[in-house]
Membrane protein
Amino acid sequence: MIDGPYFVLTVLGMLGTGLVAGVFYGFSTFVMKGLASLPPAQGVAAMKAINVTAVTPAFMIVFVGSAGVCAVLAVVTFVLWPGDGRVELLLGSALYLFGSFGVTMIANVPRNNALLKLAPGTAEAAAYWPTYVREWTAWNHVRTVASAAAALAYVLALT
């Protein structure tokens, strides 16, 4: 049985990855569909505003903090090699660090940065918008599944 500070870290990992999964799930299931239904200038302007607002302490503490907790859990698991939950802890950490945090850095953030450079009412923004929505949402699905699976792995580690 996982206990003590290791238990607390695992619960924090479970809560953080689960919260992030919920945010990403909302984007995958209705936010991006709603934005895509707007005229391109409005969709681009709204997504740019969301991207700026997302980089605030309220979300970043959970998103980056979860990556930190997952990294600590992975290192502690390798060093202490606990008998219970070892595979689940390593799997949860890998899923979040690579499938959520990593995908964000290599797939979603570059698309956000490209969108940020475009003025909403321009032909260039209108041409890029459908590609942005399609590609960003596809990668967001990956982040959603990875974050949810990480939370599930941490729950399984505790059982």
Summary: The chain has a mean pLDDT of 96. The radius of gyration is 18 Å. Residues 4-158 form one domain.
